[in-house]
Amino acid sequence: MYGAYDDAGEIMGGMGPLEFNDIQDATLDDDGLIECPVVALVDVVLYPRLVMPLFMSSKKALASLDAALERENSLICVAQRHSESAIPRPEDLYTVASEVAVGRTLRMPDGTTSALVQGRRRVEIVEFTQVNPYLRARARPIYEPSSISAETQALMNAVLELFERCVQLNRSLPESAYIFAINIQEPGWLADLVAATLSVSLEDRQEVLEMIDPVQRLHHVSILLAKELDRLELEDEIHDRVQQAVDGSQREMFLREQMRVIQGELGEGDVFQEEFSELHRRIEEAKLPEEAHARAMKELGRLAAMPPMAPEVGIIRTYLDLLTDLPWTKETEDNLDITHAAEVLESNHFGLPKAKERILEHIAVRRLAPDRMKSPILCFVGPPGTGKTSLGQSIAQALNREFMRVSLGGVRDEAEIRGHRRTYIGALPGRIIQTLRRAGTINPLFMLDEIDKLGHDFRGDPAAALLEVLDPEQNFTFTDHYLDLPYDLSKVFFITTANYLDPVPPALEDRMEVIEFPGYTEEDKLEIARRFLIPRQMEAHGLDEHAPDLRLTEGALKVMIRSYTYEAGVRNLEREIANVCRKIARRVAEGKRFAKSISATMLDRYLGPPRYTEPLAGEVDEVGVATGVAWTQAGGDVMPVEVTLMSGKGNLMLTGHLGDIMQESAQAALSYTRSQARKLKITVSAFDKKDIHLHVPEGAIPKEGPSAGVALAIALISAFTGRKVHRDVAMTGEITLRGRVLPVGGVKEKVLAARRIGVSKVVLPKKNEKDLVDVPKRALKDLDVVLVESMEEVIKVALHPVPRKPPAKKSATATKTSKPDSASAATTPPT
Description:
- The chain is an alpha/beta fold.
- A seven-stranded mixed sheet has the order 18-19-17-16-20-23-24.
- The radius of gyration is 48 Å and the shape is elongated.
């Protein structure tokens, strides 16, 4: 409402103060135009016949007002298009405005001037005749049709009904506004009055002013009224709901206070007071640190000051429950008996010497310096099924600590680690604090499983949140967002597991001590099956009671390992053993006869045909075929390399799903072969006239890495020289352009794979001699390990000697007259 009412709340329309009667409308000139000073209004639209105060502070507006008062002339009040213009220009103003008469003026304490004005008629500004010192314009008066039809009268009645409802709902509108509105007989005047009272935008007000047809204007105002009424009804409904809720809570408070007084008179206790006393007792018994105790007492004080049914009561109760349930000082006493720990680890796990040795060293140091050593952060890295998680359980058993496991696979939200702030609805502490709450001690063994499976998205990076958790220099003041207090994690024994270290951020990897879990050898799997898997599955299937003399022969277990599983761990091997046990258990349950000893020849009956074919060394020595050995997730494997030469233009074709690094190794092997062509007695032109096809079988399996360089070079040299490759020689090593053999990884797995296929010699880089310590001595006894530093040494071991050719018979004449040149003397080997 823009000043349509005076201070007493009465509408000042056509019946304005007497001072307006002395001011006449501007006189029309010969063109039917009027010329008057102009006042620009900010966020205000003034309608004809309505009276309102205007507050002016700009020099131009005051100059226009003085000019109008001096000549007892009228003003043109026009709205600005944009309120930001401090000094409006003609183009900043609308063209449709109102001619107004100026009544009394008052100077205000803030320096502005208040002028009471009355709208007279609509005008359309034609041109501005003066800009300085004030605006002056010529305008054309706009006249409205005055006829009223029955339809117009019905529309006026509808607008009055809507206006009456708005006045009832809007407390800022006095009832006198509606009384004055029902006494208006002209549709245009009624539309202007209603538009002046509505809280609508400047554009909507100006649109009403620019509508000449009263009926059209009244119809537009009815639409604005309907929108305003919808808003007011919604506000009224919300207000009613809030009032009902407040009244209900006050009534509930009153009734509960009455109930408390009645319970006191009857000698009964207050339930809420009892809960409050219980919380206070738990806080005192929890032996909280000073900061945590102060926070708990503060929250308890807030809880006491709140009504029992306040929404925040549950949030504070949950927070206090967490504070009192967390183990702040309670810890279990470590069992530091090294002999006991070694027995526990050995009885639960076979192999894994490095991991066991590291744990025993930790126990020894804890025994000698219990208060000076910080708990280590270990990371077990290895293929699935190699016993990483179960070893963590054994370590907890050996140390007499609580074992708590948290799976991090697929966690993408940082709040899963650090928790949510209590300002959020449904906030919870992070997994670290929740797990410690379940553990009940401050020094459990905490296993963070699958740390390499962490993800990150718009909700944050959980791996970054783990930097503080897994840093002994920081985790003694770990702060969870929900707890919002420093918590000591330095006594927690953290162990993480991962299949690969590549996805782990370098900063996180740097905080952990990595212990690698290599894949089990065939001997290891046999021992694990005998000591752990078979007894466990027989017990699980009830065969330890009903068929105690059932056994699987060593040959059957070997066939299971070689032909029915392909893995680094023993999970699938245990599944196959369970498969055999189920079939035996069925025959026992049916009362049928069953075999007491399962041999290798009987496995087809229980497990079906073999799923994997065990690779074997070639049956004969061949040209262009070398035997390489490779490391895989499932352990060592054989990787034969085949090379064939065809007539062509010297192109090299690589097949077998080779990775970029392995393709580069093939290029390096070919470059070395070409550079040594004269020494190897290869015709130089052979490289330009032969296409080379290098293939690594089992093309569906991706192959990568530089360790096949030696095998690739031997196959190429064999193909170009015609020298056969010894089938009982397996080789590995990275090759350089000058023929040096560089060290590689996975030596243990590769040597065992070579032994498994039945070769007698293994060619390894000289610098890998240190890695032979990890190879079982039984395997080294069965193999002749040749350590080399250059390709010349490999060629001597892997290739047959150059075939001798019988000397050609020469005539005496030819001997005297002809002399062979060096190019023709080079032998061209068969391909």
